[in-house]
Amino acid sequence: MKTICFYFQIHQPFRLKRYRFFNIGRDHYYFDDYANEDILQQIAARSFMPANRMLLDLVNQYQGKFKVAFSISGMALEQLEIYAPEVIDGFRELSKTGHVEFLTETYAHSLSSLFDPEEFRNQVKHHAERIEVLFGQKPTVVRNTELIYNDDIAELVYDMGYTKMITEGAKHVLGWKSPNYVYQAASQPKLKLLLKNSRFSDDITYRFSNYSWNEYPLTAEKFISWIAATPPEEKVFNLFMNYETLGNIQPSHTGIFEFIKALPRFAFEQEIGFSTPGEAMENHEPVGAISVPNSISWSDEERDVSAWLGNKLQQSALKSLYKVGERVRLCTDRRLKHDWLYLQTSDHFYYMSTKHFGGGQSPFSPYMSPYDAFNNYMNVLSDFIARVEAQYPDTVDNEELNALLTTIHNQEKEIKRLQMELKTVIGTNEKQLVEKVKK
To answer: Which of 25, 93, 110, 117 gives the lowest tally of CB atoms within 10 Å of its CB?
Structure first.
């Protein structure tokens, strides 16, 4: 039986405020709270809330036969809790149905998998714990930031205890192969892979309301007929997309909600079912191995990581950021750790991309140009690094610093132990003295 695997990704960055050179050393708050609140509440009203209600109705209407999955970055979770808690409540209701799966990813929606394996492990663990607390699910499937994947990441993910991961079905990796199967990692055969079907996903996300598209208008019946017409041995159709597709990227007036509502009926008529990523990989054995020596992602025609690492500006910013990673992890300053996470978000580096600048700046960027984005970010990063170095001078190398902090930590533990012993001794002596007085 053919199955459709719907997975929706939700992410919003904590955008930086205008931070000038003269703010360095004077202002340690970096974020544009007004813009973050305004943008998130608009998206929640247009997309997240009506989409949550629609999906809950579909799950209940079809008594669990209709299923979906979500991956919500830690950055988005925090903003939703602050600015739109009703959306979190909606996800809780979806989770309670038992037919909606939540995936895990890097908490900060970061590029740590490419620069700092320890940070990657920490963030995935942190994110999985947060998902369990909020929605009562322990994630079993990993979705890396921007679907970034390579052979080294596969080994890293498996070593963390996961056996399931989703990524992009990049043409230059698949070659003649179809994305409509379950695969396994070449570097770690016990890690199952589910690959995005870019054609069908993009038909909904980007082409749905395009009047010049030769298949316009796209109806649910037509879309399901395309899936039904594929070779019978192709069983899993992975529709991975931004949740904002429903109501924001494709506004409600385009008919996107009606399209999604109609999909299950036409699918069931063609004996096509729905599954979550975890179920799809549980129910199907891999048909082959995928080798990915060079990193892939969902982005652009190249399906590589050049959108975040394609120029010297981005590379310089990322190198400077992750250079202080070990020192930040050693510290106990909560504000410093908080800013460290927010500054890792991949969007900051995407805004610095010059790939499409000649044809106009990205509509998602709050900056006039990639160079403006770079200058603003580096001003913030300069202040952040100065704060790190104020606590842990760069004249002390990481190993020496770690040893020193370990010694201090051990001394603190020893002092606490001795204090407890002293309290016990004092308590015993006082008790003995009281008994003598009574006698």
So the answer is: 25
Residue with tokens 């991956």: 71
Q: Is 146 exposed, middle or buried (0-12, 13-18, 19+ CB in 10 A)?
A: buried
Report the alpha-carbon distance of residue 95 to residue 83 in Å, rounded. 21
List the end-to-end C-alpha distance of the chain, in Å, as a whole number.
Answer: 87
- What is the SS3 string spanning 351-364? CCCCCCHHHCCCCC
User: What span, in angstroms and rounded, lies between the C-alpha atoms of 428 and 422?
Assistant: 10
- Angle among Cα 61, 260, 164 to the nearest 5 degrees reads 85
Picking from 241, 315, 202, 311, the residue whose alpha carbon sits closest to that of residue 69 is 241
CA gap 153, 292 in Å, rounded = 10
Asked if 102 contacts 135 with a C-beta cutoff of 8 angstroms, the reply is yes
Predicted confidence band of residue 408 (pLDDT cuts 50, 70, 90): very low
Q: From CA 313, how far away is CA 317, in angstroms rounded?
A: 6
How far, CA to CA in Å, does 66 sit from each of 50, 95, 243? 17, 13, 17
- H/E run at residue 168: strand 164-168
Looking at the predicted structure, is the pLDDT value of residue 294 above 80? yes
State which H helix or E strand residue 72 sits in: strand 68-72
> Residue 326: CB partners within 8 Å, gap ≥ 6?
118, 398, 402
Question: Contact, 251 vs 294, CB < 8 A?
Answer: no
How many other CB atoms are there within 10 angstroms of residue 412's CB atom? 10
326 is catalytic: no
pTM value is: 0.89
> What is the rounded distance in angstroms from the CA atom of residue 224 to the CA atom of residue 304?
30
Q: What are phi and psi of 256, to 5 degrees?
A: -65, -40
207, 218, 254 from 212: Cα distances, Å:
9, 12, 14
SS3 246: strand
78, 146, 244, 279: the active-site residue? 146
Q: Tell me the C-alpha distance between 356 and 344, whole Å.
A: 22
- Tell whether the model's pLDDT for residue 8 goes beyond 90: yes
Alpha carbons 177 and 181: distance in angstroms, whole number: 9
- The model's pLDDT over 70-121, given as tens digits with 9 standing for 90+, comes to 999 999 999 999 999 999 999 999 999 999 999 999 999 999 999 999 999 9
DSSP annotation of 217 = S
What pLDDT shows up at residue 396? Answer: 61
Quick check: helix, strand or coil at residue 185?
Answer: strand
Domains of the chain, earliest start first? 3-290 (3.20.110.20)
